[in-house]
Each structure stands twice: as C-alpha cells, then as structure tokens.
Write a structure and sequence with these properties.
heterodimer; A: mainly alpha; 7 helices; 5 strands; B: about 85% helix
C-alpha cells in the first residue's frame, strides 16, 4: 500500500489487494515526465502510465484517470485497431462545406423566386430539409467508414452528471453572450435575416424544431465532436484538436456569416464538454437546447 | 561492415522529404497570408471609396428606372456598408496574420498548423463565395493546387510527427 501526497492510500494496479506497490522512487519522480500522461514501466509489465494531473499510476488502456478523472491527450490504441487519420475526415469536411454552400445558394434562389411570405417560408423549409438530408447521409456514410478506427468514448455516469452541471451553466453564459453579441450587431448593421415564423401552425413548428434543433444537434455533434475531434486528437493535443474542430464547425455555418465568431466559441465549448464528460450525448443535448432557445428567442413563443 | 543503407539513413531520407513538404506548406502559408494582408489592408483603408462607387452604380441604375432615392436612408445604408466592409476586411487581415503565424510554427506543431491552414483556407474561400459567388471559380486552378498542397502537407506533417515521436 502506498500513500499519496494528500495522505490517502491506494492499491498498486496489477498487484493483489494489500500488496505494496513496487514502483521505485525514480519511476514516480514528476521531473522525469512531461506534462502529458507518460508511460512508465513497473517491473515486469509495460501496461501503466502516470496521470499527468495526480501522478498516480493508471492502466495504459484507460481513457481517463480513475483517481482524478483527468482525460488523456493521446488515447491508447487498442490492439488490432487502426488509428484514425484526419485526412479522410478533412476531405469529407470539404464536401460538407460545399453542400452547405449549395444550401445557401438554394435558399437565396428560393428567396428571389418566392413572391409572398408563405411561399418563401415553404421554399426555405423544403430546401433546408433536402440539404440536411444530404448532409445526414454523408455524415452517416463517413461514420460507418471510420467507426472501426474511432477510439471508445469511455464515459461514466458520475463524470457525465458532473459535466452536465457545469455544462448547463456554461450554456446559459454562452446564450447571454449570444444575445449581447447579436444585439450589438443589430444596432450596428441592422438585420437582414429571413425568419420562418414558427407559430403559424403546429406542423411547421415541428418541422422547424426537427430541422433547426434535432438534425444539427445529432449530425453536427456526431461529425465534429465524435469523428473530427477524435481524429484530430490522435495527431495533436486536446486543446488544439478542440479549437480546430470548433473552427471547422464555425465554417460549416455559412448561412449565418455574422455569427461565425460566436459559433467558434460555441464549438469550443461543446468540444470541451465532449472531452471532459467523455460522452457524446451531453454535447448533443446541450446543442439541442442551445438551438431551441435561440429559435424561441428569435421567433417568439 | 554493411554495404546496404541502414534503416536509420532511409528514415533520414524520408524525414528530409517530409521536411521539404513542410517547407512547401510554409511557403504556401506565407504567400496566402501576405496576399490576404495586402488585399484586406487595402480594402480596410479604402472602404469608403469602394462603398461610394458601388452605391453610385446602384443609384444610377435606380434613377434610370424612375425611382426616387431618399438621401437620409442612403446615408444610413452608406454608413452601415462602410462598417460592414471594414469588419470583413479586418477579419481578412486577421486571417492573413494567422497564416503567417501558422507558417512560422509549421515545424514546431506540424499537424495542427497545416490542418488549421487548410480549414482556414477552405473556410474563407467558401465564405467569400457566399458573398460573391463569382469568386468561387475565379483562379480555381490555383486554389485547387493550394488545397492539394495543403492536403499533402498534412500527410507529411502526420508522418513527420510520428517520426519525431
């Protein structure tokens, strides 16, 4: 049994309960390791590394520290599992970007062709539905092509619940920033966005919630926070992967060019939620709530 | 004594080729960044003149169709258009600076620098295309070459990083 610096004690991994851990003092010297999780080799095995945060030994296959829940920058690669290269994901992203550009062009064309507001609203909804369907098919195909190489999500309920608490707090703060930023933009530039009224009939409201809240939350999170983020994190640090995937998320919203700086912040927030919670459902729920609140605030109840 | 090249020297050759690809990526980033800075600095400082010329064209067209222009509304539109032009030129300038910075750090953080450069380049291209669709096919071959060059640099950067450990 070893005692950590806080006075607690822990069992040495790989040893029967109650046996002393045989790591040498040199092996746990913090100065001999970089900040990231480092592999250490307890005598006779090569399956542990030191946690970068609490410095306790952790199984090399664990996606986060079981003592302090710190995530590991470079996830271990399972035997027989190929690593995910970011290149095919970037190619898929370029294709997605051009589908979005098509969507924007189609919406503009619809706005020019439509003479009355009702027809315009119908056109916008129909075109958005069609292009979101194309996006969905593309993302699902890429997911099934790459899922064999994706690392496991590795979450637990307690960690996710704790992340949900600060995640909701962060979301509220972000929505305040969103409102302040867009009020400032409106005072500076005025608004030119065409809004589909959502309270005209219940079918349209359901369609709007599906197209603005459900599809983007599920498909964008699956692509940017699961595939892209995990693909990038195999080749760079967590923080770089989060901010770059957030930048990609930002440019995927070409239809709202003035909101891009805010969307970068939102993308990074959802990336941190994904990494710190370890699960994908939490960013999906937060993304859905964010879009729902924005939809209600824009169009009124 | 061995007569065949050792795996170490082969590794060095491969690493040297990757290093060359990263140098190409750095040149691309410097050129794209420099052009962005020059064009957007020009746009930022001559925003009023650009907007006035565009407004004059629209006013002439409207007057030919017999429309009457409200001068106070026109002045408001002009002020907003100048602000918008300066905001976008400012963003373009910042992106140009970002390309230069990424070029400077391409050997320290090869994968992050090249991936960010590609995302920024493609994203800005799509954004410019959103505002002016004619820009999408202008200089298309050069744009495709830049994107291909950046993709090759990402592959080289991943291999370079793995070799470096």
């Amino acid at each position: 049994m070893r005692t950590d610096s806080a006075g607690g004690s822990f069992e040495c991994p790989g040893q029967p309960s109650g046996l002393a851990c045989n790591l040498s003092a040199e092996a746990v010297d913090p100065m001999s390791f970089a900040e990231d999780s480092q592999t250490i080799a307890p005598p006779g095995e090569d399956s542990h590394r030191l946690c970068w945060r609490c410095r306790l030994p952790v199984d090399i296959q664990a996606p986060h520290c079981p003592h302090c829940a710190a995530p590991f920058r470079t996830p271990p690669v399972e035997e027989g599992r190929q690593t995910l290269s970011p290149v095919p994901l970037l190619v898929a992203y370029v294709v997605l970007l051009f589908v979005n550009l098509l969507q924007v062009a189609a919406l503009r064309w619809g706005a020019v062709q439509s003479l009355d507001a009702e027809q315009l609203a119908r056109n916008i909804l129909a075109q958005t539905a069609l292009l979101e369907l194309i996006n969905t098919i593309l993302v699902v195909v890429v997911y099934f092509q790459t899922r064999g190489a994706l690392p496991p999500t590795g979450s637990n309920l307690l960690r996710a619940a704790f992340s949900a608490i600060w995640g909701v707090g962060g979301l509220i703060a972000l929505l305040v920033v969103n409102m302040a930023y867009h009020s400032w933009l409106q005072s500076m530039l005025g608004t030119t966005e065409i809004l589909v009224p959502w309270n005209s009939d219940w079918q349209r409201s359901v369609a709007l919630v599906a197209l603005v809240c459900v599809q983007p939350a599920v498909i964008e999170e699956l692509f940017f926070r699961r595939m892209v983020l995990d693909g990038l994190r195999s080749a760079m640090s967590w923080h770089a992967a989060i901010w770059i995937s957030a930048l990609m998320f930002t440019f995927a919203h070409l239809g709202v060019p003035l909101s891009l700086p805010y969307l970068w912040l939102l993308g990074a927030f959802l990336g941190y939620v994904r990494v710190l919670s370890g699960c994908l459902w939490l960013p999906i729920v937060l993304h859905f709530l964010h879009n729902l609140v924005v939809l209600v605030l824009e169009r009124g109840l | 004594m061995s007569t065949t090249p050792s795996s170490g020297s082969l590794g060095n050759l491969a690493q040297s080729a990757r290093s060359g690809q990263l140098r190409t990526a750095r040149v691309i980033m410097f050129i794209v960044g420099g052009l962005n800075i020059a064009l957007n600095a020009f746009g930022f400082f001559t925003a009023a003149r650009i907007v006035d010329e565009a407004i004059q064209v629209e006013v002439d067209r409207a007057q030919q169709q017999g429309m009457v222009i409200d001068p106070s509304e026109l002045s408001e539109v002009r002020t907003r258009a100048i602000s918008l032009t300066q905001v976008f030129s400012g963003v373009g300038l910042a992106v140009g600076v970002a390309f230069i910075v990424l070029g400077l750090f391409v050997y320290q953080i090869p994968v992050a620098a090249t991936v960010t450069a590609l995302v920024l380049y493609v994203g800005m291209y799509a954004l410019v295309g959103y505002f002016d669709p004619s820009q999408l096919y202008r200089g298309l071959i050069i744009k495709i070459l830049i994107v291909v060059g950046l993709f090759k640099s990402i592959q080289a950067a991943i291999a370079y990083r793995q070799e470096q450990g």
